[in-house]
Each structure stands twice: as structure tokens, then as C-alpha cells.
Amino acid sequence: MTASINFKRDVLPHLIAVLVFLLLTVVYFAPVVFEDKGMAQHDILQFRGGAQEIMEHREKTGEEALWTNSMFGGMPSYLINTRYSGDLSGIIHTVLSLNLPAMAGNIFVTLLCAYILLITLGMRSWLAIVGAIAFAFTSYNIIILEAGHNTKSLTIAYIPMVLAGLLYALRKNLWIGAALFALGLTLNLHFNHLQMTYYMLLLVLVWGIVEVYYAFKNGTIVELLKRGSVLLLAAMLAVGVNFGRLATTAEYTKYSIRGKSELTVPNSGDKTGSGLDREYAFNWSYGIGESITLLIPDFYGGGSSTPLDTDSETYKAFVGMGAPPMQAEQIVSQGMPTYWGPQPMTSGPVYVGAIVCFLFVLGLFIVDRRWTSWLVAGTVLSLVLAWGHHFSAFNYFMFDYFPLYNKFRAVSSALVIAQITMPLLAMLALWRLFRDREIIKDLDKKLLISGGITAGICLLVWMFGGMASFTSAVDVQLQQAQYPVDALRADRESMMKADAFRSFAFIVLAVAVLYFYLKNKLSATIAIAGIGVLVLADLWAVDKRYLNNGDFKEQVITNYFQPTPADKLILEDKDPGKGLSYRVFDATNPFNSARASYFHKSVGGYHGAKLRRFQDVIDRHISQNNLEVLRMLNTRYAITGDPQQPVQRVPGALGNAWFVEEIEKVNTPDAELEALSGFDAGTTAIVDVTKFPVQEDKFNAGNATIKLTTYEPDYLKYEYQAEAPGFVVFSEIYYEAGWQAYLDGQPVDHLRADYILRAMQVPAGKHTIEFRFEPQTYYIGNTVSLISSILLLLVIAGAIAYGFKKKQREEALAV
Question: Which sequence ranges are marked TM in the entry (predicted)?
């Protein structure tokens, strides 16, 4: 007897769910899906600038350039744009996202994974659809897309699938759950936003503690350990699929600003000596009072630049100050600094929804304690971590001592835990209300109390919120610029009160729907549909404040990367050393923009994990206008931003490589960095002899010559001629994990000089020198990824076959 599939029961509800998700996605992102438009996502634009050389090399050769010289003098491409051919999970993602355009695909996958989580719990399809909407349209999911954090978005999107696998494996079928967990974790890791994965693991840790407690209490610890062992193997498989990506990232991290500093007194004020600077990491700390934005979105004024209309007090004030109405309207519509919270700036609040908050509170009363204990604990942990330096006693301890926590910045991102736990507990409450309304004691009373708590908070804010100061740190500068600050504060107050009443209204409507259902005035189907419509209307309207059709434009990438007059002037220089091998310094925005990297090999760029040593040089020397450092980086041109003289020639650029006359020996990294002040880069090389012992310190450079003859991002070939043994410095960034030097085709050692550059002692005569970037971590990791990918596909196929056999046995027993 073969297992039969009842289309109406087993397929149709899920097909309808997918169609609903697709409809919601294409409606929200219609300009992207139907008009091929995009938007100026900051991080995506910077990514395109930094990745241009890598992408051109891939298109030209079909190979991966594992190094790029387009940013910060040169760096590995691992955290920019590297493909791992052994990792086949990207194909699975393409299928799950229906190959929708970026942004649209992200939200569709979030809807799908949240639906899978709720279905594995046993919820009916329509209820799971409502829950998926609550998960996916949380404001943060939309705001990070507007900012261009696409990989962060996708990492978050797969968290519900990971939880679904864990829940199914621990509470239901071990093997099917383990396969789903392996798939979810594989895809979560695939997008390599490890900070989001880290927060997910913290939530799983909290959940695990609760499960262990109940296992001991119920005498099932052996069974838990058994299931946990299988899940551990599934996790190892997921890590294996992503091994190439994880291994190269881990290797690179040691040398980046997220690794340990070699300086005695770390350059950036790092308090731990390892990882990020504490002040930098906690700069974006969510205010304790700001947490109420989970319930009332504009409690702190929304985003740092919010468009206002002609009904605003700020508009009226500008007109009253003598500005023509059209000019005043233009000023306020371009965005005003309405945010008055403690963060330096923000694109918008984390809003999980007024109805979700109400149902979350209801869950505290009616959901089983085994659920509420870890979901509430996870929510509290999320808030505390997001408060950052506002709750320093706990968070500084975490930063200093908790494994890997000091590798991550922008701690406000920890609210991603709450945007998982709160909708989940809310949906569990809603599910229990519909499933067990007859057996829950005083359910109508608990419903009214939960609504009263959340709606009451909103009502109090609406009535008494005007007692706040509504003062922002930017107000001083605004006053100096003669902005109507008092009017702006009035608008901030108005925004707070309007949203407080708005949240109050949504909660009252949701309570009314559920109350009428409990009193048999509405059917379950109508009540679920009503709640779904209210949740969607609530979240959708707030999301549209931050990402709407007007934000999408045609040819965004093409328009952004139109060459400027400065670019055109520089590109006219067809360097005889092949490949435009000199560098450019964009003085207009050197280290927070990768626009120049699209056209040139840049001294600057944009990246959240620069090489630490290069960051040291930026802080100590480049930012102090040390010309010798720019010379040794072969900086030929500077983009000035001056329309009259858009480009300046940097005097004395030293070329791709040069012979020096002497070595200045130092004994510490501090001394090596300090010696870059006041030295002649063309004649002297600075070497830390404790790491690179050299015997000679004087050389006869004489008539020695060296030139670059072949350039590829990860391959360089030089020809030189020297009458005597010499010492060559290469204007290339030293990175010990992968670069191999060859002299006349034979491997030779090279060393570091001038704190960041490569150097080599060379024999007399006419010779060739080659540098090849051949990181074994990448090649080994890719092989492990391929083997693990094949195993994962076999595990998924096995789980599907097992599911059919299980269904067949159940049907046979039913007969």
C-alpha cells in the first residue's frame, strides 16, 4: 500500500499560503518585480563599488579573484564578493525564494520560513498565514532592506526554519526535524551575517536551558541527550556546507579590526585588546525608554530624517519666518530630524506591532509555562543587550568575557531576538485561544486584562506624553542654523501622540474581534481573518513610512556610478605598468564610501571589517596627512571635491615596487607604526626584526630597477635587474594567510615592511618575482563544502522518503 496524498487536505492549504505570500510580496515590491526598478540602498551601492574588480575578473576569466586591490590598498575578497562553488545551498535558496528580485525575495522567504515554523507546531494554515505576516512585516525587516542590509535580512529570514527544525526534532519526529534543522541552519549560515546567527544561538541557548530543566523534571534527560546528539550532527553538517565561507571568515577575522590588536596601547581605544573597540561597538545602543517603540512606533520620532507635510508645525513655522510656501514644503518634505532618542541616528524604530504586543501579553496568561519561560527570557535578554551602554554593568561584562560577543557592533540589532520571540508567543496565545477556549478559565477576563494593559499604556502616552522634553542632540546645531526648533519639537510630540492613539485603536479592535468570537458572535474563520487583516494593516502602514513605491528608481546602480569629471581625468592616465596599477585617494569621503573603488584602485573604501593594521595606519598617519604613507601606497591622484581643481597629482608616488638603501630595525609593532612618521619611504624600509629577522641594514640600490609586468587581482609579476643583492618593497598589502612569493618560479619567503607592505630580499642579476594569492583555507573549505552539500541533499531526500513511509504506516494502522 502506498501513501496517498489528499490534495485538498495536504497540498491546497499550503499552496494557498504560498500564493498569499507571493501576492503580498509583489504588491509591496511591485516596482521591483514588474518594473525592474531598484533603490539607492547605501550598503548595496558600497558593495557594488568594492566588488567591481572582483566581478569584472569573474566575468572575464570565469574564476574567483580571492583578493582585490580596489579598497584599502588591497584585501581578501571573502567578506566582499566571493563565491564558493562547493556550497550548493544557494540553489536551494533560489528555489525557496522563487528567484524573485532582491528585497522581494527576502520578504517572501521570511514569510515562508515563519509559516513553516507555525505549521510544524500544528497550527492550521490560515492561522499560520497570520503569524507569518506578523513575523515578516516587523518594521526592522523593512528598514534594513532600505539600508541595504540584504544579507542580514536573509540571515534573519531563515531563523524561523531553524527553530522549526529544533521544535519538530525535540517534540515530534527526530529525523524529519533534524533534516529541517540542518537545512535551516545551512541557509542561515549561507548569507554569512554571523551577528544575526549569534543572536539566534543566544536564543537557542536560553531555550536549551529551559528544555534541560524540564527534562530533569520529567525524567526524560536521556531522551533529550539522544535527540540533542542527532541535532548536533545536523549542525555539523550545516557548518560543513558553509565550511569554506566560515573558515575564510574566521581566518580573516584574526587580521581584521575584529581580531586582537598587536599594539601595546591599541590604536582605537580598544578596551579588551581583542575584537572591536567597546565605544564603537556600543555606539548604537537602544535607549531603555526607547523600547516602547515595539508598541508605539513613533514614540521617539521615527527616523532621523522624516518627511513632514504642510500640516506640520515646522512647515507653518518656516512660512511664518518668511519662506515661500513652496520652498517651505520642499524643505520639510525632504526630511526633518524628528528622532530625539539616544542613538546617533536611526532609519526608523523596531516596531513589532500593537496587536502582537497585546497578544504577547495575553500569552503570559494562557500559554504553557514551558513556552513562556524561554520566550519571555529571550525577549528580556534581547532588550537588555540592545540597551548597550545604557545597561553597562551587564553588557560590558558580556562584551569583555562572553565568547565572540566583542566581534559585533551596533548592539541595537539584538532586538532581532525580540522580533522572533514576541510574534511567536503572540501566535501561540492566539492558537490556544481558538483551540482551547472552552477549557481556559476566565479567558474573556484575561483577554480584557491583556488588552487593558497594552491599550492602557498607549492611552497614557496619548494623554500625558507631552510632558517629555522632545529635545534632540542635534537641536543645538539646528538653532544655530535658524531652524524653528520649537515647532519641530511640537511635531515630535504630535507624532508620539498620534501613534499612541493609533496603537490604542488597533488593540481595541483586536480585543473586540476576539471578544465577540468568545461570545459566539463571530466564527473562528471570521475572527482569524479579522485579526489577520488588522495585523497586516497595522504593520504594512508603518513599513510604508520607510520603504514605499516612491523610493524605487530606474537604473540606480548605473546612475550612481556615472564617472565624475575627476574620474574621467584620472582614467585618461593609461599607466604603462599595465592594469592602471597606481592608487587613488578620494579625499571627499575616503573611508566611508566605495564609490571611487568602482573606477580605481583606492586607498580608501567602505567596509565594516578592514584589516586592523591598515586601520592603524589610517588613524595614525593617513588621517594626519602623512605624505610618505600615501607615497608608499603608490597614490598618484587625489580626488579633491573642488570643482575648479577636481584632481590633484600626489607628488612622489613610489610606483609598484622599489629598491631601498637601508632598513630601520624596530622591535615592536608600536615602534614599527610610529616609525612611519618622519621617514623617507623611497630610501628606507621599516622592519620588525622580532618577527622578520634580517641581518643586513644597508644596501646598494645603485641602478637597480623593478617594474610590474603582469597584473591580476590575485597575481602579480615583476621583472627586476640589480648589480648587487638588494631589498625590495612592494606597494602591496602584506597578508600572511595566502600570499606566496616566487623567484624565477621557485617559492621564496617574503616579509612585512613599513607596517603594512610586502618586502623581499633579492639576489643580484636579472630575475622575475611573482606573487600568487593561494589561500589553502579557501580550497580546503570549498572541498569540505561540496562533500557536505551532497550529504545534505541526501539527508533531505531521506527525510522526504521517511515522511512518506511514516504516512504509509499511519494509514495502514488507520485501516
Answer: 12-34, 91-118, 125-145, 151-169, 174-191, 197-216, 228-247, 348-367, 374-398, 410-434, 446-465, 500-518, 525-542, 778-804
- Tell whether 412 and 361 lie within a shared domain: yes
pLDDT bucket at 812, cuts 50 / 70 / 90: low
CA distance readout (Å), 51 to 44, 70, 179, 575, 592:
10, 8, 35, 22, 15
Q: Give every CB contact of residue 187 below 8 A, 6+ residues apart in sequence.
A: 89, 92, 93, 96, 154, 158, 161
Nearest CA to 168 out of 106, 121, 131 is that of 121
Spell out the residues 6+ positions from residue 783 whose beta carbon is closer than 8 angstroms to its own: 86
DSSP string computed for 212-239 = HHHHHHHT-HHHHHHHHHHHHHHHHHHH
**Count of domains in the chain?**
3
b/e per residue 168-177 (b: at least 16 CB within 10 A) = bbbeebbbbb
Instruction: Establish if 617 belongs to a structural domain.
Output: yes
Same domain (yes/no): 348, 439 = yes
Please give the Cα distance from 110 to 114 (Å, whole number).
6
User: Other C-beta atoms within 10 Å of 485: how many?
Assistant: 21
Tell me, yes or no, whether 528 lies in a domain: no
Three-state SS for 747-784 is EECCEEECCCEEEEEECCEEEEEEEEECCHHHHHHHHH
> What's the one-letter identity of residue 543?
D
Give residue 7's pLDDT band: very low, low, confident or very high (50, 70, 90). Answer: confident
Task: Assess whether 378 and 430 both reside in one domain.
Answer: yes
Reported as a single tens digit per residue, the pLDDT across 77-99 is 998 999 999 999 999 999 999 99
- Please indicate, yes or no, whether residues 414 and 293 belong to a single structural domain of this protein: yes
14-39 residue pLDDT tens: 999 999 999 999 999 999 999 888 88
Name the 3-class secondary structure at 583: strand
Identify whether residues 516 and 401 lie together within a single domain. yes
Find where cell 526535524 sits. Answer: 177
Q: Quick check: 582 and 575 in contact, CB under 8 A?
A: yes
Find all residues with CB under 8 Å of 812, minimum gap 6, and list them.
1
* 612 shares a domain with 517: no
Alpha helix (H) residue ranges in 465-606: 475-480, 485-518, 524-546, 556-560, 565-571, 595-599
Residue 228 CA to residue 183 CA, distance in Å, equals 16
Q: What is the DSSP-derived secondary structure letter of residue 306?
A: B
The 10s digit of each residue's pLDDT in 85-134 is: 999 999 999 999 999 998 999 999 999 999 999 999 999 999 999 999 99
Structural domain of residue 642, as residue ranges? 563-649
The residue out of 649, 674, 690 marking a domain boundary is 649
Burial (Cβ within 10 Å: 0-12, 13-18, ≥19) of residue 369: exposed
716 falls within a domain:
yes
Residues across the chain: 815
Task: Kindly report the pTM of this predicted structure.
Answer: 0.91
Domain boundary among 740, 757, 774: 774
Question: Are 618 and 736 members of one domain?
Answer: no
Number of alpha carbons in the 13 Å side-chain half-sphere of residue 465:
29
Name the helix (H) or strand (E) containing 718. Answer: strand 715-722
Would residue 702 count as lying in a domain? yes
**Residue written as grid cell 573558515:** 247
* CB contact set of 239 (below 8 Å; sequence gap of 6+): 185, 189, 246
Same structural domain, 619 and 663: no
Q: Which amino acid is at 813?
A: L
pLDDT at 266: 54
Q: Quick one: what percent of the chain has pLDDT higher than 90?
A: 86
Q: Which residues contact 778 (CB under 8 A, 6 or more apart)?
A: 66, 78, 82, 244, 247, 248, 738
Query: Is the distance from CB of 367 to CB of 427 less than 8 angstroms?
Result: no
Spatial distance between the Cα atoms of 249 and 258, rounded to a whole number of angstroms? 11
